[in-house]
C-alpha cells in the first residue's frame, strides 16, 4: 500500500565553497533533516560548488563529475543508511563536450530511482548557463520511490507551467525545484521585491493548477568571486506549498535552514475532487501549445 502521509524537506544552504567541503556539509545537513523526521530530502541546485555560471570560463568544466561517481556514491550510502529518499542536484559530465545540470533521485535502499536533466536553460547576465549545460533529453518525469511519487524540475524550469503540468499528469505528488536564484545587488532596491514575488507566485500557481505539493530549495549568500562585479545575492526564501498554494513552511532570506512539511495524499485527493482542473482540461483544443508562436 502506498504511504498516505510522508514528510518532505528542503535544505537551504550557503554553498560558496569547494566541492569537498560542500559535500561534507550537505551530508551532515541531510542527516539532520532525517533526524527530524524527513523522508524525502532535497538539496539546492548544483550543490557541490559556488554558482560558477556567473562567467563563461572553460576551467569551470573541471567541476563536473561523471554519472555514479563522487556525489552518487556518497549520497547513495547515506540514503541506504538513513532509509530516506535524497534529491541530489549536480553538474554532470556526460562525455567530453556534453554536460548537464542534473539531479539524482536516490531511493531508500541507495539505488537510483531516477535521473533528471534540466530542460530549460537560461542565458541572462551572470546566469550564463547555456555556455555550460546541454538541454535535458530525458523529458519531464515522475519518479516512483518507496516514499512517494516525486517530480523533480530544476530552477529555470520553475517558470514553465507546461513542465509542471506534464510532470503532474504522470502522477507526481510533489514537485521539487532545486534552485539557485538571487538578486543582482545593483538591481535589488528597484526590482527585488517584484522578482521575488513573481518567483513565489508562479510556483504556488503550479501547486494550485495541478493540485500538488511544491517544494523549492534555494541557496543563500553573496557569491562574489569575480573581480569588478557585484556578484549574486542568493535570496534563499525556500518554501513548501500545499495543493491549494498554501505556504506550509518558509525560510528566511539569509539563514541556513531545514524546512519540513507533511504530504497528505487524502488531502490532495480531496482538493482535486473539489477543484477538478484535470477533469475539465480541453485537451482537444490544446494542439497549438507545441508551436513557438501562433502567427
UniProtKB/TrEMBL annotation:
Cited Gene3D superfamilies: Carbon-nitrogen hydrolase
Domain CN hydrolase: 6-265
A Pfam family this chain is assigned to: CN_hydrolase
GO biological process: putrescine biosynthetic process from arginine
SUPFAM superfamilies found in the cross-reference section: Carbon-nitrogen hydrolase
Keywords in alphabetical order: Hydrolase
Single Gene Ontology MF annotation: N-carbamoylputrescine amidase activity
UniProt cross-references to InterPro entries, sorted A to Z: Aliph_Amidase/BUP (IPR050345), C-N_Hydrolase (IPR003010), C-N_Hydrolase_sf (IPR036526)
Domain of life: Bacteria
Protein known as: N-carbamoylputrescine amidase
Organism classification: Bacteria, Pseudomonadati, Bacteroidota, Flavobacteriia, Flavobacteriales
Amino acid at each position: 500500500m502506498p504511504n498516505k502521509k510522508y514528510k518532505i524537506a528542503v535544505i537551504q544552504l550557503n554553498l560558496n565553497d569547494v566541492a569537498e567541503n560542500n559535500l561534507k556539509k550537505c551530508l551532515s545537513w541531510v542527516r539532520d533533516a532525517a533526524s527530524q523526521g524527513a523522508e524525502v530530502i532535497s538539496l539546492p541546485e548544483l550543490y557541490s560548488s559556488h554558482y560558477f555560471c556567473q562567467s563563461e570560463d572553460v576551467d569551470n568544466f573541471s567541476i563536473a563529475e561523471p554519472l555514479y561517481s563522487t556525489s552518487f556514491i556518497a549520497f547513495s550510502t547515506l540514503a541506504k543508511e538513513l532509509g530516506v529518499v535524497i534529491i541530489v542536484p549536480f553538474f554532470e559530465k556526460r562525455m567530453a563536450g556534453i554536460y548537464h545540470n542534473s539531479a539524482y533521485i536516490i531511493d531508500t535502499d541507495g539505488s537510483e530511482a531516477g535521473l533528471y536533466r534540466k530542460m530549460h536553460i537560461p542565458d541572462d547576465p551572470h546566469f550564463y548557463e547555456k555556455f555550460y549545460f546541454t538541454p535535458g533529453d530525458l523529458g519531464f518525469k515522475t519518479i516512483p520511490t518507496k516514499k512517494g511519487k516525486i517530480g523533480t524540475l530544476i530552477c529555470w524550469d520553475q517558470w514553465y507551467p507546461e513542465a509542471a503540468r506534464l510532470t503532474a499528469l504522470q502522477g507526481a505528488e510533489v514537485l521539487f525545484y532545486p534552485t539557485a536564484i538571487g538578486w543582482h545587488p545593483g538591481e535589488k532596491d528597484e526590482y527585488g521585491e517584484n522578482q521575488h514575488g513573481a518567483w513565489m507566485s508562479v510556483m504556488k500557481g503550479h501547486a494550485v493548477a495541478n493540485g500538488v505539493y511544491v517544494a523549492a530549495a534555494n541557496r543563500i549568500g553573496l557569491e562574489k568571486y569575480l573581480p569588478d562585479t557585484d556578484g549574486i545575492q542568493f535570496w534563499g526564501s525556500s518554501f513548501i506549498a500545499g495543493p491549494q498554494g498554501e505556504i506550509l513552511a518558509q525560510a528566511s532570506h539569509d539563514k541556513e535552514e531545514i524546512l519540513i512539511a507533511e504530504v497528505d495524499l487524502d488531502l490532495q485527493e480531496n482538493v482535486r475532487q473539489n477543484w477538478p482542473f484535470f477533469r475539465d482540461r480541453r485537451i482537444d483544443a490544446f494542439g497549438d501549445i507545441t508551436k513557438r508562436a501562433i502567427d
